[in-house]
Every structure is written in structure tokens, then in C-alpha cells.
Design brief:
Blueprint: E1 10-12, E2 18-21, E3 26-28, E4 31-33, E5 43-46, E6 54-59, E7 62-63, E8 76-78, E9 90-92, E10 101-107, E11 112-121, E12 127-132, E13 136-146, E14 151-155, E15 168-171, E16 177-186, E17 191-199, E18 204-213, E19 216-221, E20 225-227, E21 233-236, E22 241-243, E23 246-248, E24 258-261, E25 269-274, E26 277-278, E27 291-293, E28 305-307, E29 316-322, E30 327-336, E31 342-347, E32 351-361, E33 366-371, E34 376-377, E35 383-386, E36 392-401, E37 409-414, E38 420-424
Parallel strand pairs: 2-11, 21-30
Antiparallel strand pairs: 1-4, 3-9, 5-6, 5-10, 6-7, 8-9, 10-11, 12-13, 13-16, 14-17, 15-16, 17-18, 18-19, 20-23, 22-28, 24-25, 24-29, 25-26, 27-28, 29-30, 31-32, 32-36, 33-34, 33-37, 35-36, 37-38
Length: 425
């Protein structure tokens, strides 16, 4: 009997929506795993809801503009120096509200595709105005230019919610929302009040505070926020990864101190930039030579961390922190690993026993058997063992009665983060 092992790369994309703010650039991740040189491949990025549907088409190393939807002209590109590593991610410049939607990353020669949802956000600081009558002070709060639809509420000096009527939300012809609300407070009280506007889906918060003291008052608007991903970032062992962290509204971070840390480590620092220089003496030793900031993006408030040659020990919670602004953001990194299963065949007088083993997985994978039509086959519980390197090996047997007729069997091993490999006999 001959055994054929067929391994095809899968197209891997994010499991959660990508969030981008209007006017910013964004990368929609898509890569071949296992890595395969995509330089000579046709790569198609499309929006199925558009006509023509194509956002970016690369064929024979050239972009085909004639197939492209007109609103994407001059705003899309692939990361050409990463194509040889199987990275076919799309860079979309100067994001517009109309860019929001579902994108398809497709390689025709491999018949592989993956879908990525892009959520486009917009936010602005609220504006407070004061109206006085004989007995009370009415605080009016309005915040324009939000997307998606935000919520607004009032807080007192202790951070407790104030009772107020339902806010009014209006969507303008540009698709952006304006939200407004009023609250009445007693004229005799000296206190601070905050109008806060937030949108959880894009993880944006803006607030303006006012301090009342007799007939005097002063306003204070919040500084930039640090914005990061809402969901964990997934990286495969041996690959590079970027942990996104961005000041919004954008603010030049070139001369700021930027600290990246793992709170569970000692010393906790992964990367520290101070006065334009990296401070290696503060750094945890396993990150030496593997971290960097995107220096050409610092002027735009992008303080994302690039981590090279990811290791299993890199998995954990990272803190992006700018001390001078007292702003921080936490990002979870999940590290994955996958490998193709190996089949061996053992025969006895009455049955054929198929043994399947797949080594080097993380997190803990599942294993199951399929017949030639893709139906699940009954088998005992797989055995999963974690090795000293922290990676999992999963094994399982399938026992079938002997027959003169040829049969086709497939095994699959799946990691929870989306990796998939097949061997076929």
C-alpha cells in the first residue's frame, strides 16, 4: 500500500473584526500557513457587496487597476517584501467610513480564502456649555462625529452616574453621529461634573470636565487615549507579530517615553524608549534583540511593538504605557503552533488499524477522523500529551475491518486558533 501525504497551506486571518479610525491607515491581516512564497501567485482582495467587487488584485507581480472599485484607487497595497513569506495582507490608507464591511482574501491557484470584517470608527471630544436661570445651572453636552453610534452619560466628582434624560442621537448625511444631553445642577453647589461619551465596539472614550464654584467655572478636556485591539492577538511560533497601540487623537510620540511591559515578569520591561533611545538595561533578557517600535510611525502617535521570531514563552498580557500622559493599554498575545498529522498503518488478520499522530501544537488541539465524504468516523478519545517544550502531541487510532475495496480516510488536527493540516491515504 502507498501512502500519500498532501499538505496545502491555509489562508489565515483574524478571528475578530479589525477596527480602524477614519483617516488612519490599517492592515487587514492574511497569510499562508504553513508559509509559502506568494510572490508569483495571483492575490485577490474583494468586497462581495460591491460591484465591481475587487479592492486589490495582484497578478504576475502587477496590480490590475482596471478591476478595482473606484473608491479604493491609490489607497491599497500589499506588503511586497513579505510576499515571499506567504504574507498577503492588505494595507488600506486613509480609511473612510465607506470602507467598513466584509473583505475576502483569496488566492485562486490554491482555492483558498478567508474573510475579514473591518469596523470603521470615529470619535471626538464633547463640548460643554452652561445655561443659568434663577435656581439652577443647566449643563449642555454635545459631541459630534462618532461612529458607530455612541452613548453619553454624566458623572459627578466621585465618578457616580448622574440622573439625566435620555440623550438625543442624530446621524448626519456623512454617516457620523452627533449625541447630546443636558443635566440640571443646583446653583449653590460647588462641584465638578463630567460629560463622558464612549463607544465600546471601537474602544473609544472622550470626556470633558467642568468645575463649578459660585459664578466661576473652568473646563478641562481629556488628552489622547491609548487605543489597542479589543481581542487577543494571535501569532505563530517563529513568525513576527505587531502588538498595536495608538494615541488617539494622534499626537507626536517621538520625544515621549514609551514603555512596553509584561506585568508577570521580573524585570517586567519588554521594550523601553526614552529620549529616542532604547534602554536595554531595563529589559527582560528573553526579549533582547527581538523588539522594536515602528520609528517612522511615532510622529503619528503609533507606539505599536514589533516582536520578532515569536516564542511560546512570549504568550501573555502586555502593557503599553506612556508615563507622561498616564495612559496605558493592555494587549493579550496568544502564541500558536501547528504541524501536519502523520499516519501509519498496522494490519492484522481481521482489521486495519490506522494510527494518527500530530506533534508540536499550541494551544491544545482536537483530533478527529473523516471518511471520503467528509463524515465524522467514530473513534476512541484521542490522547494528548504536553511535552517539556510546552507543545502538545495528539494521537488516536481508528480500527476498520479489512476489505478488498479501496477506501479513503482523512485525519484532521485543529487548534482553537484556526490552524488546520490534513494527511490523506
Amino acid at each position: 500500500m502507498f501512502i500519500f501525504i498532501l499538505i496545502h497551506s491555509q489562508l489565515i486571518g483574524p478571528t475578530q473584526p479589525i477596527v480602524a479610525m477614519i483617516g488612519h491607515d490599517v492592515i487587514l491581516p492574511c497569510h499562508l500557513d504553513p508559509a509559502e512564497d506568494a510572490t508569483a501567485m495571483t492575490v485577490e482582495w474583494a468586497r462581495p457587496d460591491l460591484e465591481p467587487r475587487f479592492v486589490h488584485v495582484l497578478r504576475d507581480g502587477l496590480e490590475l487597476d482596471e478591476k478595482k472599485y473606484h473608491l479604493y484607487m491609490g489607497r491599497t497595497s500589499l506588503l511586497n517584501n513579505q510576499l515571499k513569506h506567504g504574507d498577503v495582507s492588505l494595507k488600506l490608507a486613509t480609511v473612510k467610513l465607506s470602507d467598513e464591511g466584509k473583505y475576502k482574501c483569496f488566492i485562486p491557484t490554491l482555492s483558498k480564502e478567508t474573510f475579514i470584517d473591518l469596523v470603521v470608527g470615529a470619535a471626538s471630544s464633547p463640548v460643554l456649555t452652561i445655561n443659568k436661570d434663577t435656581s439652577a445651572v443647566v449643563l449642555d453636552c454635545e459631541s459630534k462625529g462618532w461612529h458607530p453610534k455612541p452613548e453619553l452619560f454624566w458623572l459627578d466628582a466621585e465618578g457616580k452616574l448622574l440622573s439625566a434624560g435620555a440623550p438625543e442621537t442624530v446621524r448626519g448625511p456623512d454617516g457620523l453621529y452627533t449625541v447630546s444631553n443636558s443635566v440640571a445642577v443646583e446653583k449653590s453647589h460647588s462641584n465638578s461634573y463630567t460629560c463622558r461619551v464612549q463607544q465600546h465596539k471601537i474602544q473609544q472614550t472622550r470626556e470633558t470636565q467642568i468645575h463649578l464654584e459660585g459664578e466661576q467655572y473652568s473646563k478641562h478636556m481629556t488628552l489622547s487615549q491609548l487605543i489597542g485591539p479589543l481581542q487577543p492577538i494571535v501569532a505563530m511560533i517563529g513568525h513576527d507579530v505587531i502588538l498595536p497601540c495608538q494615541l488617539d487623537p494622534a499626537e507626536d510620540a517621538t520625544v515621549m517615553t514609551v514603555e512596553w511591559a509584561r506585568p508577570d515578569l521580573e524585570p517586567r520591561f519588554v521594550h523601553v524608549l526614552h529620549d529616542g533611545l532604547e534602554l536595554d538595561e531595563k529589559k527582560y533578557h528573553l526579549y533582547m534583540g527581538r523588539t522594536s517600535l515602528l520609528n517612522n510611525q511615532l510622529m503619528y502617535g503609533d507606539v505599536s511593538l514589533k516582536l520578532a521570531t515569536v516564542k511560546l514563552s512570549d504568550e501573555g498580557k502586555y502593557k503599553c504605557f506612556i508615563p507622561t500622559l498616564s495612559k496605558e493599554m493592555l494587549i493579550d498575545l496568544v502564541v500558536g503552533a501547528a504541524s501536519s498529522p502523520v499516519l501509519t498503518i498496522n494490519k492484522d488478520t481481521s482489521a486495519v488499524v490506522l494510527d494518527c499522530e500530530s506533534k508540536g501544537w499550541h494551544p491544545k488541539p482536537e483530533l478527529f477522523w473523516l471518511d471520503g465524504e467528509g463524515n465524522l468516523l467514530p473513534a476512541g478519545a484521542p490522547e494528548t500529551v504536553r511535552g517539556p517544550d510546552g507543545l502538545y502531541t495528539v494521537t488516536q487510532q481508528l480500527r476498520r475491518r479489512r476489505s478488498n475495496r479501496r477506501r479513503e480516510r482523512k485525519t484532521e488536527a485543529h487548534g482553537r486558533e484556526g490552524g488546520e493540516e490534513r494527511c490523506q491515504t
